[in-house]
Each structure stands twice: as structure tokens, then as C-alpha cells.
Amino acid sequence: MLSFVMLGLVAIGGTVVVLTSDPRRQAITLSVYGVLLSVLFLILPRPTSR
User: Fold this and answer.
1) Contacts of the segment 18-26: beta carbons below 8 A, 24+ positions apart
2) Which residue of 27, 28, 43, 46 has the lowest C-beta tally within 10 Å?
3) What is the reported pLDDT for 22?
């Protein structure tokens, strides 16, 4: 359930990053987006290997 919420936040964050035009705001949104991607990477389970 938490992974779906994080995927939604990453999708919204990516949209915000793309639509931001001011360079100062781009730096802030890219920083937040990087943190969101890092948390998503830590939350998602790794695929099982055989």
C-alpha cells in the first residue's frame, strides 16, 4: 500500500519538475524529487532471484 502512495508521489513530483520554469524553483523541485526517488527505492521490495 505504501509503495503505491510513493509511486503516486513520484509521478506527481515528476510532473511538477517538468512544469517548473524558474531555475531557482527547479533546484528545489529536483531536490525534493531526488529524495522521493530515494525513498521509493528503499521502500520497494527487490525482485526475487532464482
Assistant:
1) none
2) 46
3) 94
Amino acid letter, residue 6: M
What's the rounded Cα separation, in Å, for the pair 37 and 34?
5
Mean pLDDT of 24-43: 93
Query: For the chain, what's the residue count?
Result: 50
- 44 or 19, which is more confident: 19
Task: Specify the amino acid at residue 17.
Answer: V
Would you place residue 46 in the very low, low, confident or very high pLDDT band (cuts 50, 70, 90)?
confident
What dihedral angle (degrees, nearest 10) is formed by the CA atoms of 14, 15, 17, 21? 160
Residue 2 corresponds to which amino acid?
A: L
Task: Identify whether the C-beta of residue 39 lies closer than 8 Å to the C-beta of residue 27.
Answer: no
